[in-house]
Design a protein that fits this description.
The chain has 360 residues and is an alpha+beta fold. It is built from eleven helices and 14 strands. The protein is globular, with a radius of gyration of 23 Å.
C-alpha cells in the first residue's frame, strides 16, 4: 500500500494529522472493474501525490491549523505546480528538490514590449518573454559545478544533530535563485541551499525555499533537516499502532484504518506531552531526564482542541493562510551564522506550529 500523509511537529511534539491511500494510474485507475471489486467509488480517481498533499494541507488549514513552515522530499519539491500553489497560499516552505531542478542564479532579461523593428517581418510576438539571447536555466547539479555565483560562496559546516551513528555534520551554502513560472519566465528570488555530507562529500542535497530574503541559514537548515520526524511517526505508527498490520481488502476499510491510526497517534502524543508537562510542574525531570524538553510548549494545549478534529470536507475553506514574515537578522556580517559547526539544535525553541512534514 502506498499512501500520502500530513504530519505536524513542534518542539518535541509530533503527530500524524491525515492520511489517504494513493491510487496508481496504470494498475488501478484504468481498471475500473478492479476498483469496484475493491469498493473504490467511481468518483475516486487517480490524483498525483502532490495534489493529494495539497488537499490535505488545505483541509488542515480549513480546520484552523496554521503552519509556519512546510517541508517535504523531492518527490513533491520537484513539482513546480505544487510549489506555485503553496506560494499562492502564502505558505513558507523549505523543499528538497531533485538535482535536475532548473533555474537561474542570475535572472535572465525579460522583454515586456516590442523593440522598434519592421512590422512586416513575421507574426507579432507575445509579451512578456525572455530575450532571444539569454542565459538558459541550469539544473542544480550543473550549477554546483559551474556557477561562478555558487563558487564565490564558501562552504560552512553545521552540526545538524546527533544521530545513532554519531554527530551529523553537513556543509552548506546558499544563493539567490530564480525558478520558472508557468510561462517559463523567471520568478524569485528564492533561496537555493546546497548541502553536502562532511563524511561523504558525494552525498549532496538541494533545497528551495520561498522564505523572506533575510531568513538566517540556520533557520532554513533547521526546517530542511526536520523531515526525520515523519519517519519517526511512521516507525511509531507501524511498530506500536499497527499501521502496517491492516488485513482488509476494501477501500473504505483501508481509509478508516489510516485515520484511526492518525487519531491513535495524536491521542498518545498528547498523553505523553501531558505527562512531561506534569513532571515539570512537579519539579521532576522530563521522561528523558531533560527538564527543558518541550520548553517551546510551555503554554501547550491539545493541538486540535479548537477545531474538534479534522473535517474531511473542509477542502478549500479558509485555505488562504497568510505568510507571516517576521523581522530577522540578515545573514551578511552575522558571526553566529558563519560560525563553523553551529549547533542547530541549540537555537531558541520554535513556537507551536513551526514545522510540518509531508511524506508518503
Amino acid at each position: 500500500m502506498v499512501s500520502v500523509h500530513l504530519g505536524y511537529a513542534a518542539g518535541d511534539f509530533h503527530t500524524l494529522l491525515d492520511g489517504e491511500p494513493y491510487l496508481p494510474e496504470e494498475t488501478w485507475h484504468n481498471d475500473r472493474a478492479r476498483c469496484r471489486a475493491a469498493g473504490i467509488p467511481d468518483e475516486v480517481v487517480y490524483r498525483p501525490k502532490w495534489r493529494m498533499a495539497l488537499e490535505q494541507y488545505r483541509r488542515a488549514v480549513g480546520n484552523g491549523i496554521r503552519f509556519a513552515w512546510l517541508t517535504f522530499d523531492e518527490g513533491y519539491g520537484g513539482k513546480p505546480p505544487f510549489l506555485r500553489e503553496l506560494d499562492a497560499c502564502g505558505q513558507n516552505y523549505v523543499a528538497e528538490i531533485p538535482v535536475s531542478f532548473v533555474g537561474w542564479t542570475v535572472p535572465p532579461e525579460v522583454l515586456y514590449r516590442e523593440l522598434p523593428r519592421d512590422k512586416r517581418m513575421g507574426r507579432p510576438r507575445r509579451f512578456p518573454r525572455l530575450k532571444v539571447r539569454h542565459t538558459p536555466a541550469c539544473a542544480g547539479r550543473d550549477i554546483l559545478k559551474h556557477s561562478p555565483v555558487v563558487r564565490r560562496v564558501p562552504w560552512v559546516a553545521y552540526h545538524v544533530k546527533d544521530g545513532a551513528k554519531g554527530p551529523l555534520v553537513w556543509e552548506a551554502k546558499g544563493v539567490p535563485f530564480w525558478i520558472k513560472d508557468e510561462r517559463g519566465l523567471p520568478v524569485g528570488p528564492y533561496h537555493l541551499l546546497i548541502c553536502r555530507n562532511v563524511l561523504d562529500p558525494t552525498e549532496v542535497k538541494f533545497f528551495l525555499s520561498n522564505a523572506p530574503a533575510d531568513t538566517p541559514m540556520t533557520v532554513l537548515l533547521l526546517v530542511a533537516f526536520a523531515r526525520w520526524r515523519i519517519e519517526r511517526m511512521f516507525e511509531d505508527s507501524k511498530g506500536e499502532l499497527g499501521l502496517d498490520h491492516f488485513e482488509v481488502r476494501r477501500y473504505g476499510s483501508l481509509c478508516r484504518h489510516l485515520l484511526l491510526t492518525c487519531v491513535s497517534h495524536l491521542f498518545l502524543a498528547e498523553f505523553c506531552q501531558r505527562q512531561k508537562k506534569r513532571r515539570r510542574t512537579d519539579g521532576a525531570s522530563g521522561v528523558d531526564g531533560d527538564a527543558d524538553v518541550g520548553g517551546s510548549l510551555a503554554s501547550w494545549r491539545p493541538v486540535l482542541a479548537e477545531t474538534g478534529g479534522i473535517d474531511r470536507g473542509a477542502i478549500g475553506v479558509n485555505a488562504g493562510a497568510e505568510r507571516k514574515i517576521t523581522a530577522q537578522p540578515p545573514q551578511a556580517n552575522s558571526a553566529a551564522i558563519t560560525a563553523p559547526r553551529l549547533e542547530i539544535d541549540q537555537l531558541d525553541p520554535m513556537p507551536m506550529a513551526q514545522e510540518v512534514a509531508l511524506s508518503y
